[in-house]
Amino acid sequence: MVQTTTYAENKMKDYELMIKQLDALSNDEMDHIALLSNASALLNQFLTEINWVGFYIWRNHELVLGPFQGLPACIRIAYGKGVCGTAMKERETQRVADVNQFPGHIACDAASQSEIVVPISLEDNLYGVLDIDSPIIDRFDEMDQHYLEKFVRVLERHLNK
Length: 161
Fold this sequence. Notes:
Largest sheet: 6 strands, antiparallel
């Protein structure tokens, strides 16, 4: 059973709890859309000061919009374009303090000021990205990056079933 939880105790403990919840919610589920939907809802519930959270899935040489929470978004993103495409190309997390300073930033929501994108791989193959936007400049720090990468590793384990 899932209950609405207000997080704010301790950032590190809150992230650890969220990751445990992801693991429990994902147990015995094999449908990728269901897994990504619950993961985006969990992140939306947990994270403060964000305006969009969701997934783009790698299909036919481009990123295609997947499950998300927030305003309607760009449907397709080319490989190497914007923050999401760059994360895919470089296969590493992109933490952008000010998206207006990022060359080639794709503005799906004019309110977005900072962004973090974590690539997702299954068995060394590109699968997609977790994308989170915030209306606050420099919203994401090293701790956010560490735990969001850990969150994605747990998600990858369940997607690999």
